Amino acid sequence: xxxxxxxxxxxxxxxxxxxxxxxxxxxxxxxxxxxxxxxxxxxxxxxxxxxxxxxxxxxxxxxxxxxxxxxxxxxxxxxxxxxxxxxxxxxxxxxxxxxxxxxxxxxxxxxxxxxxxxxxxx
Length: 122
Hints:
52% of the residues lie in helices and 0% in strands. The chain is mostly helical.
């Protein structure tokens, strides 16, 4: 992992290393986001991020996440997995994300709003 370097400054090789084991769609979205810095592009990483952090045997999330989906009840992402995902996003984007900050994140909409604020993308 290449900590403390924002995703937008990482090489394609660094991103591949940081996202080893993640679905290829996650890496593709990260590479595009690095270039265009559009939140919609970033949001395409979320299904892969969620899939990677789900417990073994959990159903794969849909490629298009509805904002109303609940992270825990609908997608199977427990609080530990959400915390691990936050740490990964912190590492990828070089932005501090505290565990307590993600505790109120319950839906995909909440997650997108939280990340938009953290990335400062209006």
